[in-house]
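A further point concerns the way the authors explain their paired sequence and structure data. For illustration, here is how one protein appears when written out as sequence plus structure tokens:
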Amino acid sequence: MPVYEFKGLSREGKNLKGIIDANSPSDARAKLRKENVFVTEIHENIGGSSGSSTGRGTSFGQSVSTEDLALMTQQLSTLLSSGVPMVDSLSALIEQMENARLKRVVSEIKGKVNEGGTLADAMAAHPKIFSNLYINMIRAGEASGQLEEVLNKLTTFTEDQNRLKGKIFSAMAYPIFMLVVGFIAVIIIFTVVLPKLIEFYDNLNKALPLPTQILIGISESLTSYWYIFLGVGLAIIFGTRAYLKSPSGSYKFDRFKLTMPIFGPLFRMVAVARFANTLSTLLSSGVPILVSMDIVKKVIDNQVMLEVVEKVRTNIAEGDSIAEPLRRSKEFPPLVTHMIAVGEKTGELEAMLEKVAQTYNNQAETKIGAITSLIEPLMILIMVAVIGAIVISVMLPIFQMGNAF
């Protein structure tokens, strides 16, 4: 069923624009009339961004979040497992979707499926929404006749990844916020407060303590040569970004992330959990091992761990096991390689990988909680120490004047 983009007026005269699926422009106009929309312009939406449906405001270019995708996947699984045919299931999804972009995409998918195409091939036309992992799992589910189970696995996988990502973001957000606030506070003190105090101290005609002199020197430099500091700061930022985007810089930074104090073990736990969770989900869905390893490479967001997975994939193609090259790399913990080796010997590799993923997901969440509880008081102490040192340096001349009397 085609998707039409429209502009119109509500009964109250409010401007509306959005999308609607219909068999023809006249059918779309009829549907909109039932919703009390007077259509002023309508045309078929072929690709591109689209607006929202009637009554939901305007949101052209609306993105598709992982929550939207997980909800769609779960709803499709529920409909199919209830015996509803694929095309009818997609129609039901379209009618209840709130995300305009996803609504348009699913409408296009429904049209291709209705013409005899597979669900995986129809989704493959939208790589910005459906990842290689998602498409290959759908393709394997269709081939094995277990599409409903695969959709359930995809829902769980997406929710787990999103939950862990959210916890990592929460752990990093607080220290970043405190650093930004502290930096702004220090800049205000040096550029606004101290210049006024400098005039007062100049009128005293007395030698100032060394900490106060250093503070005044920094303040005068910032206010007189701020453009130099700004230029140097921007050069450092853009230079660092360019270096980190280079192959050498990216690899070294990823190596540093795995070995850095406090956060290093957390980054390794997340990488191991993502590797095990993705591989387990793919293999249990019927995706071949070599294809699964190719997909896993694109999921791991660390060049060091990615290099290991590439070597493992090469060794598997040559007839080797999974556990042995992982063990030789020394990048994966011994517990992981041992559990994978046991899974390969017993023929329960998927189940063992799932246990590894659960174990390291739980460890990562525990580590995040510990880091958060440690960072919060540490950041407060650092801010108190910095601002306290500034205040004491400012007040030293006044204390000396009091002692003189």
About this structure: The beta strands are 3-9, 15-21, 38-44. The longest helix spans residues 147-202.
